[in-house]
Give the backbone structure.
Amino acid sequence: MPEIMTTDVRTLLDRQPFDQSAVADLREVLGRDPSRYRTLRDAVAAMRDREKASMTPDIHLRLGVGEVLLGRYPSGFEQLKKAGDLGLAHFYRGIALQNLQRWDDAAEAYAAATTAGYDQKQSELHRAGALRRAGKVEEAQTLLDGLEKLAGSSAEYHYQRGSLLALDGELTHAAVEFEKTLNLDRDHTGALFELAYINDLYGNDETAVEYYKRCTQRPPVPLAALINLGVLYEDEMRFREAEACYRQVLAFDPSHPRARLFFKDCRASKDMYYDEEAERGFTVLRQLLEIPVTDFELSVRSRNCLRKMNIRTLGDLTRTTEAALLASKNFGETSLSEIKEMMASKGLRLGMALEGGERAANDARMEPIEELSQEEKALLAKPISDLNLSVRARKCMTKLGIQTVGELIVHTGDELMECKNFGVTSLNEVREKLTEFNLKLKNE
């Protein structure tokens, strides 16, 4: 009887052995349902906390691959360096290096992946891409010529071929290759971005927007795609959507110079123009987010939990993650399914406001971004481990997905208290630690 592939992200991350097949299954599950990236983020955080005392090369491998899939390339690279001489580790180290724009190092990592037994064709295709970006175009072309048999069967082959054509200015032929890429892999981020960019150059704004939007639907999202999409939205005077794009960039990189400049310009433009149709749609969605959860037929357990967490409206739920709900006392999978079904009936989902993808959720609650000094940025970016919290308090941080001081101070004391096994003593401990940095929890 054939084995049925599990769709549980945590099970796949823990699979024995954790090899190329396990990662392929993990990527397939993430590709089918992007919301599972949140589960992956929680699973990686839990594994890091659980295995902190006894890290092995195998754990470093799992954590490294997980971090790279989440777009956390610096931390993923550091984990994979400790994973040993494995083809899988070298390959994902190459992906991390490529996204860190260390092209020569990435090419070496892909070569090492081939030597260590990783899929030779995939390693060579990605190596060709790294060499191209490093300026070694002839070497990249030679590699690609040797893989010509992959034409018609490999999305990555057509993507790399299209990228070389685009480099030569043959944009029409390049677009054909990128279309072939999407015929084989409809979610290939690189091909989606390149097609968006080509259509943008030719003035096909509507098509470009659609490609950029598809490019941003699955993490890790290219920051350039969000910037370009925001600019196109501004051209169409869709300032709220443009602002949401720039917010996403700034959430990832608060000091991004173009995002900060465009964000300020966008806010200024939004004050100058009034889009009646967009404003009407925004008003309808805002009214939807203000519907009380008591208007729905929920179980007593779910209602009590939401009340204790001070969740009063659908809008509150869009700013709450699955992990935060499950961390609450007496709240389980049954209650979670009930809440998710209720949200889906209104076209909403848990945590959507935190992703920056829903303009109303962002605009209704987020405060304007203010300039921070370098010292303030560094302070808010400090990892939670720098607070030297007790084991009980650290576990609560993990359950809530809190990794930095900045992520901690946007929570209230009541929200932390709702986490299982977190009491007044732990809350006071957190407050004392924050006081040392002249910081407080939200609303204190």
